[in-house]
Amino acid sequence: MEKDFIKIFEAIDTKKAKQERENIASMQAAGLYPKYFSYPITLQFELTGSCNLKCKHCYNRSGDEDRIRYTKMTPEKWKQLAHQIVKDGGIFQCIISGGEPLLLGDDLFDIMDILHYDGTSFVVITNGLLLNNENVKKFAKYRYFWFQISIDGHTAELHDDFRGLKNSWNNAVNGAMEISNIGIPLMIAHSVTPKTLPYLEEMINLAYSVGAGGLMIGEILPSGRAITNTELLLSPTQRNELYKQINILSQKYAGKINIERSMNISTSMSRYVSQPNGGGIIRPNGDFRLDCMVPFTIGNVLDDPIRYIWQKKGRNAWQHPKVLNFIQSIDKKKQQGNILNHVNDDIKI
Ligand code: SF4
What we know:
Helix content is about 40%, strand content about 15%. The chain has 13 helices and eleven strands. By secondary structure, the chain is an alpha/beta fold. The structure holds iron/sulfur cluster (SF4).
């Protein structure tokens, strides 16, 4: 009988999360880990709601008219926020995303510079379309956890159809090579659809050939544009096959490229709940949101200083009853085919 790989992976996730909780609890008991963070240690800057692509699965629906209008944080406002963070004592990690962050041009580097010279390290998430020899050199000076480029097919045909723009595969692949050639740690993110599921090994070879140290493989969740593009979602049998293949291929390619699978959404949420909150996302309209898949906001950086927002609501936000109720309903929402419908429906807590 075929093994249920989804259950196996969920059990591994749950075991890992439990282990992590226990480790944190024992470190807290020994006074080696804080009960709460007095300031965020990691923040994601969603720099814009604009995008030069219109991907069929975008959870943010970036590039749609309402998403562009929703962008209230100008580059100057982002720089002011970065200065405010440095003045407050700084953050450990900043995740740069969008929309497409490279649309900010040189302003992007100005924002990164403010945090970089304060000691912050980065994750950059981009579609790779605007990477070129010149801007890749500018990216070289920063410290990274990783630099992430999305490639959703081992051929141009598969990727371009999914991403909605001819030649987007060529640009992403060339950009990825430029990034790895200059020595920046490269991660390729790959969203699997029923069409691309048979080509996982080809995808691993592509990621390896462009110099990636890691390939993050995930299925598409029913949120944002994917709610209406249901042909992108895997059936239970296909999902099981995906997990089975990840299991086989991660062992086959161990030591050559690190194959990671995006974590089960319920598990990652339950981890947040059981640990001291460490950060959140600053949205293009200035809202401070808990997570991309959780529609709760705790303030707006255009109205209040980030320190005030954090101390008032951020530290214990994951334990708010509305958040806990939402997390408990995630699996049901997933089955119903709709985790997050309109990203504008954020709920203030
Ligand atoms: S490139 Fe990213 S932000 Fe832009 S539409 Fe695609 S998924 Fe959304």
